[in-house]
Each structure stands twice: as C-alpha cells, then as structure tokens.
Amino acid sequence: MAFGWIDEQAELRRRAGLVRTLRPRAADAPLLDLASNDYLGLARHPEVAEGAARAARTWGGGATGSRLVTGTTELHTELERELADFCGFEAALVLSSGYAANLAAVTALAPHGSLIVSDAGNHASLIDGCRLARGRTQVVAHTDPDAVRKALSGHDAAAVAVSDTVFSVDGDAAPLAALARACREHGAGLVLDDAHGLGVLGDGGRGAPHAAGLAGAEDVVVTLTLSKSFGSQGGAVLGPARVVEHLVNTARTFIFDTGLAPAAAGAALSALRLLRREPGRAARAGAVARALHHRLTAAGLEAVRPDAAVVSVRAPSPEQAVRWAADCRAAGLSVGCFRPPSVPDGISRLRLTARADLSGAEIERAVQVIGDTRP
Ligand code: PMP
C-alpha cells in the first residue's frame, strides 16, 4: 500500500507518547496565555488590527505576485525602510516568513566551497538553511565562541557563522560580541536570527544585535520574524545594502515566493510605530520574564534564567511534560510543551513566554497553577 510506512511511524509515535495534535483556539478563549510569542501583547492591539485592515482595504487580500513582479507595494518598501532604520541597519528585505528569511540569508551567503559554522542549538529554519546551502556546514558547541574560532581557523575561502541571538527553547542568549570578534579574526560573516530578541532586547526593543553594538556592521546580517513581538506575520533580512541587493538577485525563497500579504505588512508597520511611541513595552516583557523565573524558582521549580522573554521549566519526562501542560490547560493556563524530537537534547520542558501586558496578579496565578499541577 502506498504510504504504508506512515502507519508504522504513527504507531511508534503513539507508543512513545509523542503524538502532536492541533487545538483550534477560540476567539474569546478564557485561557491565560503563556504559550504564544506575542511578547508585547500587540497581536490583538486595535492599532495593529487596524493597520492590517487598512492595508487590506488599500492593497487587497494578497500581494498578487512575487516581489520582483507585482508583489512589491509602497507599503512593503515603507516597512523595509522603517525596519532598517529602527534596528540600525543600512537596508532591509521583507519576506513571507522568518523561516523564509533564514533560508534566504544562509543559502545566499554560503556559496559552493564556503564554510558555515552553526550553533548546535540553532532554530530548525537555520538548520534547514544550512542543509539547502551549497557550502559545507560544521555544527559547533552551543554558545561557544572559541569553538566558532577553532572551526573558522584554517579555512581560507568564504565563511559565515550562524546563530540565534536568543534560543527559542531555553530562552538563553548567544554571546554576540564574542562571536563577532571570532568571525572578524577570520574575515568571516555573521548571520544572527533575532526572532526572539526584536521587541524585547536592546534600546526600546531594537534587538539583541543593537544591544551588542553590532547594528550597521558591514559583516553582520540579521534575520527577523514579524510574527512574535510585532504580532503579525512575515520575516526580514537586515544588513548592508550590497548584501540585500545580493539577496534580491539570488535568494530563492525571496525570488520564487509570493510577496508578504499587505495586511501582514500593515500590521507589522503599525506594531513598529507603536513600539517606537511606547518603548517601555520592551523592558516590561523582560521584567515579566524575570519575575516569572523568580517566582517559579521560589516555588521549587527548575527554571532556566531568562535572557529575554522565554522561560523554560524542566519536566521529568515527555509523558509528564504533556500531562503537566494538559493539567495547566484544564486549570485555565495555556503553556507550551517542548519534547523530543523538537528538542534535540532530549530534555522535555514547559515553555512559558512573558508578555509585556501580563499583570502581577496574572503572574502569580500562572505560578500557582504550574506549582499545583507539577508532576
Ligand atoms: N527563527 C526562530 C528562532 C524562531 O523561533 C522562529 C519561529 N518559531 C522562526 C525563525 C521562524 O519564523 P516564522 O514563524 O516567521 O517563520
């Protein structure tokens, strides 16, 4: 039978307790949300929703074509200008997702004969970028600039190091300044995925590279998602104008993909302008994460100290992690549950995300529920 092997895999998943299912979210969900990536609480902000609606009314439901044909509206170029300016880079290129942005950046900057040095904890989209690129990939120890330096030494052709700025599973940060130094010693480029740093770290949420003094550097390229702090959808690559021009001409996930939907561009632009007007939201998301960590630890739970808005809590086993998350849900709290194969280290955990608009009472309630339902 065609696809018969799928049933064997499904059975193995069932036996291992690793089956994933989709749970539709109701528009008026009464759950307390510590699972989404809506770090600044902007996804449902009236200004952001209105930005999406206005863009759809002006430009329509879709971009109508790839960016190089009909899919670049004035709204796209406005968003690119303002993103580059906000984060401190010369130019920006908007793509249909952060995933596409990572595939674009890594494949376009790692030609045949080049070396890619990739952190062992990188996001799946960076890993897939490495798999698609023509260069050779060397995976190095997590957050270890000396391992990057060692991998780069002795390689004479083009080279690039790639890393998340804030790792999506445990919320720990990469040592950006040391990574940049290691790359510079060897004339290598540095690609940083700031999906979890934008809107949370740096002056007013300008991101982790800005905080590390790397904004505008000629050897640094940053990828972003518009789907987390900016409460919308889409991705971007920021860097020197010549790098962006190179991507426009060579990056397949840019060239052969339909442009970002105008509604998503409009929502992201509204979120960006709102954050400029209310920069305190960024610091608040970080403060909420630290408060969550502090209270969880005080309750005797094993939580990783957060560097941005993600707080990771260790669970004893995949089965117990699943049950813990389900029990939280039954008690009115939505939390993320990460387990193998999403986590290569085999450690299952609850993944909590701080939001700038969480109140002190909501933090207390969340900690109470997590503590009461612990395995
Ligand atoms: N990079 C990281 C670190 C992420 O966590 C994500 C989203 N899970 C992405 C890239 C992909 O972004 P998008 O959802 O916009 O495709």
Automatic annotation (TrEMBL):
<dbReference type="InterPro" id="IPR004839">
    <property type="entry name" value="Aminotransferase_I/II_large"/>
</dbReference>
<protein>
    <recommendedName>
        <fullName>8-amino-7-oxononanoate synthase</fullName>
        <ecNumber>2.3.1.47</ecNumber>
    </recommendedName>
</protein>
<feature type="domain" description="Aminotransferase class I/classII large">
    <location>
        <begin position="31"/>
        <end position="370"/>
    </location>
</feature>
<comment type="similarity">
    <text>Belongs to the class-II pyridoxal-phosphate-dependent aminotransferase family. BioF subfamily.</text>
</comment>
<comment type="pathway">
    <text>Cofactor biosynthesis; biotin biosynthesis.</text>
</comment>
<comment type="subunit">
    <text>Homodimer.</text>
</comment>
<dbReference type="InterPro" id="IPR001917">
    <property type="entry name" value="Aminotrans_II_pyridoxalP_BS"/>
</dbReference>
<keyword id="KW-0663">Pyridoxal phosphate</keyword>
<dbReference type="InterPro" id="IPR015421">
    <property type="entry name" value="PyrdxlP-dep_Trfase_major"/>
</dbReference>
<dbReference type="InterPro" id="IPR015422">
    <property type="entry name" value="PyrdxlP-dep_Trfase_small"/>
</dbReference>
<dbReference type="Pfam" id="PF00155">
    <property type="entry name" value="Aminotran_1_2"/>
</dbReference>
<keyword id="KW-0808">Transferase</keyword>
<keyword id="KW-0093">Biotin biosynthesis</keyword>
<dbReference type="InterPro" id="IPR015424">
    <property type="entry name" value="PyrdxlP-dep_Trfase"/>
</dbReference>
<dbReference type="InterPro" id="IPR050087">
    <property type="entry name" value="AON_synthase_class-II"/>
</dbReference>
